[in-house]
Amino acid sequence: MRIIVTGFAPFGGETVNPSYEAVKLLPDIIEGHQIIKLEMPVSYDVCPALLEWMVAHYRPDAVVCLGQASGRTAITPEYVAINLKHGSIPDNSGVRYADQPVIPDGPAAYFTKLPVRRMVAALQAAGLPGFVSYSAGTFVCNCLSYHLLHMIDTKYPTVKGGFIHVPYSTEQVKNKCLKMFAMETEEIAKAVSICLHTLIESMRDASQ
Ligand code: PCA
């Protein structure tokens, strides 16, 4: 199997984004399956096109996109992506949307195609914080997540995919005045790898 795993570039004044820092630490092969890693630009308009190209080119069995959610207190697989772009800040290309659809005429929402409850159970069993999230917000992460699920729904029905938000990394909060929850980058990478093992296991179960 081939699995595309993406993280985002830094944004909002940060110098790192723990989502891609964690992706970089993943092995290239997990249980014999190829992990294709990609850093996504924080751009509403560029990241969906890039993902579309990656999926057409690599024909993966699964796609897992990751992003940073400041203030989250756990690794949070997202249950839903909504058809809404609305940002309180511009993206890294200077684009800011207010109450726009991600895909005009698309459905209001898509549900994940990842085994999110099983992932959370596996995280908790390993002593790592995890819960299912029911909102990925309305910024670029939700936009990418919606595009991914729309692509699966309309073009690649056998592909499993979805989005996972991760908290700040410890290095990001060091110099912040506010006390914020954070995890070591290595710990985030371990959590992501547990989610990928769970995904592989559930795909194996489904094919039997
Ligand atoms: N988090 C932002 C965009 C990029 C990222 O890592 C979000 O939650 O939308």
Kindly describe this structure.
The protein is an alpha/beta fold and 208 residues long. The protein has a single domain, classed as Aminopeptidase. Helix content is 35%, strand content 21%. It is built from six helices and ten strands. It has a six-stranded mixed beta sheet, sandwiched between helices. It has a two-stranded antiparallel ribbon with strand order 6-7. α1 packs across α6, α2 (46-58) packs parallel to α4 and α3 packs across α6 (185-206). The model has no long low-confidence stretch (mean pLDDT 97). Bound molecules: pyroglutamic acid. Pyroglutamic acid (PCA) is lined by residues 8, 11, 17, 19, 42, 67-69, 137, 139-141.
SSE map:
Blueprint: E1 2-8, H1 18-25, E2 29-30, E3 33-40, H2 46-58, E4 62-68, E5 76-77, E6 80-82, E7 109-111, H3 116-125, H4 140-154, E8 160-166, E9 168-169, H5 170-173, E10 182-183, H6 185-206
Parallel strand pairs: 1-3, 1-4, 4-8, 9-10
Antiparallel strand pairs: 2-3, 5-8, 6-7
The chain binds pyroglutamic acid.
Q: Key features?
A:
35% helix, alpha/beta, globular, two-stranded antiparallel ribbon, Aminopeptidase, binds pyroglutamic acid, 208 residues
User: What is the string of helix and strand elements?
Assistant: EHEEHEEEEHHEEHEH
- CATH class category: Alpha Beta
CATH-level-4 superfamily name: Peptidase C15, pyroglutamyl peptidase I-like
Rounded Rg: 16 Å
SS strand fraction: 15-25%
Distance between the termini: 15 Å
Total of domains:
1
Query: What's the rounded overall pLDDT mean?
Result: 97
Helicity range of the residues?
25-40%
CATH architecture: 3-Layer(aba) Sandwich
Strand ordering within the main sheet: 2-3-1-4-8-5
User: What characteristic shape results from the CA principal axes?
Assistant: globular
Oligomer: single chain
Biggest sheet: strands, sense, closure? Answer: 6 strands, mixed
